[in-house]
């Protein structure tokens, strides 16, 4: 849940991982087309390093970088385990009071509940197709 000031209380299980694996530091939160993505600082540095290797990138890669990096904001976690999500990011992801966090291995996503419900239904409807695609990656 977002409070009236736009602060998100990070659930204990996420905070525990952030403390154990990433020294509990802050987050970089950025936009995705349907949600926000929150990266521990250490994981964000890896993304920056990877992006720095694309100096002669195609226009499409530069457009992706521009969108992904332009919205990135460093967001410290306060002593009560909350993070203030800037209004511009809340607006971009259409976040209101009810939000859901989804763990994604090295980061987590922040979704409006309605948008995530639709995304999960789409995944259910296409699960066998997606499963086949993932199996081909192995």
Features:
Chemotaxis protein chec, single chain, alpha+beta, two-stranded antiparallel ribbon, 47% helix, five-stranded antiparallel β-sheet, globular, 138 residues, 7 strands
Quick recap of the structure?
By secondary structure, this protein is α+β, with helices and mostly antiparallel strands. It has six helices and seven strands; from the N terminus they run βαββααββαββαα.
Over all CA atoms, what is the radius of gyration?
16 Å
Overall geometry: globular
Number of domains as seen in the coordinates: 1
Category from helices, strands and their pairing: alpha+beta
What is the strand content?
15-25%
Return the CATH class.
Answer: Alpha Beta
Helical content stands at 40-55%
CATH superfamily assignment? Transcriptional regulator MraZ domain
Adjacency order of strands in the biggest sheet: 4-2-3-7-6
Low-pLDDT ranges: none
What does the model show?
The protein starts with 6 loop residues before the first strand and ends with a helix. β6 and β7 (108-112) form a beta hairpin. Helix content is 47%, strand content 21%. It has a single domain, classed as Chemotaxis protein chec (3-Layer(aba) Sandwich). The chain has a five-stranded antiparallel sheet with strand order 4-2-3-7-6. Strands 1-5 form a two-stranded antiparallel ribbon. The protein has helices spanning 12-22, 41-52, 59-70, 87-92, 113-125, 127-137, and strands spanning 7-9, 27-31, 36-40, 73-75, 82-84, 99-103, 108-112. It contains six helices and seven strands, in the order βαββααββαββαα. It is of the alpha+beta class and 138 residues long. The radius of gyration is 16 Å and the shape is globular. The model has no long low-confidence stretch (mean pLDDT 91).
């Amino acid at each position: 849940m977002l409070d009236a000031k736009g602060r998100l209380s990070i659930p204990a299980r996420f905070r525990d991982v952030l403390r154990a694996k990433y020294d509990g530091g802050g987050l970089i939160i950025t936009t995705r087309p349907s949600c926000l993505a929150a990266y521990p600082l250490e994981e964000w540095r890896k993304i920056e390093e990877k992006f720095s290797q694309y100096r002669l990138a195609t226009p499409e890669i530069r457009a992706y970088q521009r969108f992904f990096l332009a919205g990135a904001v460093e967001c410290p976690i306060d002593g009560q385990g909350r993070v203030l999500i800037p209004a511009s990011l809340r607006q971009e992801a259409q976040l209101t009071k009810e939000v859901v966090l989804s763990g994604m291995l090295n980061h987590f996503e922040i979704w409006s509940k309605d948008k995530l419900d639709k995304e999960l239904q789409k995944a259910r409807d296409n699960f066998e197709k997606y499963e086949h695609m993932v199996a081909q990656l192995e």
